[in-house]
Design brief:
With 58 residues, the chain is mainly alpha-helical. The chain has two helices and no strands.
C-alpha cells in the first residue's frame, strides 16, 4: 500500500469536505427545519390526533 498516496487522497478529501461543509450538513438541516416550522404552523393546529399522537409530537 502506498502510504504517501493514501495520505494525499485523505488530505484532499478532508479539504474538500471542509470547503463544502455548509452544503453538506447545514443546508439539509436548515431546509428540513424550515419545512417543519412552515407546515407545522400552517396545518399543525388544524390536524387532529392520529393514534393518540399529535402532529407536533410526530
Amino acid at each position: 500500500m502506498n502510504l504517501h498516496g493514501v495520505l494525499a487522497i485523505y488530505s484532499f478529501e478532508m479539504n474538500r469536505f471542509l470547503r463544502t461543509i455548509f452544503q453538506s450538513i447545514a443546508s439539509p438541516v436548515l431546509s428540513t427545519s424550515l419545512y417543519f416550522i412552515v407546515f407545522g404552523s400552517a396545518i399543525g393546529s388544524q390536524m387532529t390526533e392520529i393514534g393518540g399522537v399529535s402532529y407536533g409530537a410526530f
